[in-house]
Amino acid sequence: MAMAGVNYQPGTILRETIYSIRNILGDSLDDLTVERVVIGVFYTGVKLSNGQGGLCFTPIKAIPGIVCCPSSSRAMPASGELRGRKATAFLEGMFADQALRRALGIAVLNALSATCWQVRPPMNYTLQTGANALDQVVIPGEGQVVVVGALIPFIKVLKRQNCRFSVLELDPATLKKDELPFYRPPEDAQAVIPRADLLVITGTTLINDTLEGLLSFVKPGTQVVVVGSTASILPDAFFRRGVNLLGGTLVTRPDELLDVLAEAGSGYHFYGRAAEMMVLHPVNSASGI
């Protein structure tokens, strides 16, 4: 269950990460601007004035009423005016009601985290590039696995190994017919998660403000993994809340990446070309979990 002395209120992971970035970058943070923004069908990406890039899942389904120009304009009211703004101006957008502003703010946060890794290499955790966090997960043979989000490749592995698992997902339509028996609605989280021996959570829970609440339900000893491009940020706030492994994306060629996103590209199009998967884990943790 919740760790003593740790805040599980929504948004605290993001706010603690902003604080850490400010401590690492100091006054230089205020000099950074956003040079380029692309809000693609699958991912939102940014490039900062220092050449660093960041990614976030584009929460298309969270945008209500995108049927005409007046309603769509409310989703991103500053379109056409974003280039050249200070990076810090985007961070408060992570706590706004508009889903696209939240995604854009997280993409900037990811780019700032990459900046921090250049300025101050990891000390109390390791950063491994070219690795998929889900490949390092040790699935408990007789234990219960809970997956938050339709992480289809991992769900396929669980089915193939005849594991005991449940999938907490907002939209059951994202699951195939033979996966629906494992489906549980989000409101079942407090009943399902405490039974998990392995909990795998999609990073998009940062966008809808549910991650901290989910982590507060975890029983002691559960192995916790958070994965996805959205969660490509400094990991300390995750580790404080019991996360054992963090899997994200490190942007290597920001302009090429943004060109791909502008053409409705997904991870299949940019991994190995403009970005690399990465794995973060505490130095006192084994490479696998």
Describe this entry's structure for a reader.
The protein is α/β, with parallel strands linked by helices. It has two domains: 12-119, Enolase-like, domain 1 (2-Layer Sandwich), CATH 3.30.390; 125-282, Rossmann fold. The protein contains ten helices and eleven strands. The strands form two sheets. The protein has an eight-stranded mixed β-sheet, with no helix packed on it. Strand 8 (198-202), helix 7 (211-216) and strand 9 form a beta-alpha-beta unit. The longest helix is centred in the middle third of the chain and has 21 residues, at 99-119. It is globular, with a radius of gyration of 18 Å.
CATH architectural category of the largest domain: 3-Layer(aba) Sandwich
CATH class of the largest domain: Alpha Beta
What name does CATH use for the topology of the largest domain?
Rossmann fold
| Helix-and-strand structural type | alpha/beta
- Report the portion of residues in β strands: 15-25%
The topology string of helices and strands comes to: HEEEHHHEEHEEHEHEHEHHE
Taking Cα atoms only, what radius of gyration do you get, to the nearest Å? Answer: 18 Å
Helical percentage: 25-40%
Shape: globular
Task: Kindly report how far apart the N and C termini lie.
Answer: 19 Å
Task: State the major sheet.
Answer: 8 strands, mixed
Domain Putative heavy-metal chelation: 132-278
Protein name: Fis family transcriptional regulator
Domain DUF4213: 24-113
Pfam family, one: DUF364
How is the topology of this model organized?
Layout: H1 12-25, E1 34-39, E2 43-48, E3 53-57, H2 69-73, H3 88-91, H4 99-119, E4 125-129, E5 144-148, H5 152-160, E6 164-168, E7 183-184, H6 189-192, E8 198-202, H7 211-216, E9 223-227, H8 236-239, E10 245-251, H9 254-262, H10 267-270, E11 275-282
Helix pairs in contact: 1-4
